[in-house]
Amino acid sequence: MQEREFWQLLEEVLGRSYGRSLARDQVLDRLGGMTVVDALSAGEEPRVVWNVLCDQMGIPDSQRWGKDHNAPPMPVR
Hints:
The protein is mostly helical. 57% of the residues lie in helices and 0% in strands. The protein is built from five helices and no strands. Helix 1 packs across helix 2 (16-25). It is globular.
């Protein structure tokens, strides 16, 4: 998943205003207390950030990939 795809999915699943607000304000415990914006700026993989955000917000797998999307593969480390 590229960062561009992350932002598109965020807006599709959470809505533009709410999603962008969460990205700036929601602290992600599993990513050291960073926000989405901070985590992406620090170089975290967008798919990892997306999964952490969805887990923390309680978004089920059936909804987290939006309409007609398949989950992208996990990054290789």
